[in-house]
Amino acid sequence: MANEKDNQSKDLYSSQVDIQTKRFFFDIKENHKGKYLRITEQSGGRSSIVVPIEGLEEFDNQIKLVINTSLD
Hints:
Strand content: over 45%
CATH architecture: Roll
Number of strands: 4
Strand order of the largest sheet: 1-2-3-4
Order of helices and strands: EEEEH
Radius of gyration: 15 Å
Distance between the termini: 54 Å
Number of helices: 1
Shape: flat
Largest sheet: 4 strands, antiparallel
Structural class: alpha+beta
Number of domains: 1
CATH class: Alpha Beta
């Protein structure tokens, strides 16, 4: 049986931003699998996505593309 400590995550960084009626949380965490970014949207309910730390640069590139495209 797996040790409960293996499933725990350690908080490394947290921030939040409020946009209109939504609140977004940006949390860098670490668990036995490694570091990751969790982005959580709170607007009535909650939903979140998880991005492994190794994918943050590509994630950032895609966000910038979306921003640049939407501003045209």
